[in-house]
Amino acid sequence: MAYHKMAEVYDGLMENVPYDDWVVMIRQMIAQAAKPIQSVIDLGCGTGVITRKLAAGGYTMTGVDQSVEMLEKAQKDLGPVSSINWLEVDITELDEHKQQYDMAISCCDVINYVTDLQSVEKAFKNIYQLLEKDGLFFFDVHSLYTVEDVYIGQTFSDVTDEAAYIWECIPGDEVGEMYHKLTFFHQEQGDRFIRFQEKHHQRTFPVEVYKNILKKIGFEKIKIYADFSLKSNNWNEKSERIFFLAEK
Known about the structure:
By secondary structure, this protein is of the alpha/beta class. It has 2 domains: about 5-145 and about 205-245, Rossmann fold, CATH 3.40.50.150; about 145-205, N-terminal domain of TfIIb (Single Sheet), CATH 2.20.25. Helices cover about 25% and strands about 35% of the residues. The chain has a 7-stranded mixed beta sheet, sandwiched between helices. The chain has a 4-stranded antiparallel beta sheet with strand order 6-7-8-9. Helix 4 links the parallel strand 2 and strand 3. It is globular and about 55 Å long. The two termini are about 30 Å apart. About 35% of the residues are buried. This is Methyltransferase YqeM. One of its GO terms (molecular function) is methyltransferase activity. Pfam families: Methyltransf_25. Keywords: Methyltransferase, Transferase. InterPro entries: Methyltransf_25 (IPR041698), SAM-dependent_MTases_sf (IPR029063).
């Protein structure tokens, strides 16, 4: 995953992303939890939009991302929230992190950037170790339908007053694998625009594959949701975004 130069324009181009819907789901998962949830680690937090929203709601937040540029942007945009702990680390390399949390979240298809099963298992093992007993792990992924039928082979674009992008979705060699070729135009001074590119690699796996890895590691009470519905186990072959909730 890149997100280097892109950090400068990321929030402006993501204005229509339904972050509040993620927050609603997370709060619902917390309300249903077997134990009180206070400390939350946000894995792949990006510029920290969800991290800040939860911190403003009173949760003790830690934001994790491997992009120093995204974390720098997150810290600049703190506003009235100043108590968030930020960590620069890849989510597959969290085995050295010893602090434990009541809940781990990973939103906006971050787990899709973990593109082989060995690394998915390693990441989930590390997350399991991060959690207190009865702690929760909540994450989402693109469905196979979304990757194969909605994204691959398509080109998307958007223009704002300060930036524009062209986003091409290119198939990979494996089922559920895709590459995002992103070309950005960013206004720096006056009418001057700079052009830069990033290439992102994502892969998704069938729902049962993620579920079986969670079980193998020791997670229990696994629930599956789709497309921001709060009704569990209502996903189908045309669901676009799959959510998992698992308990340690």
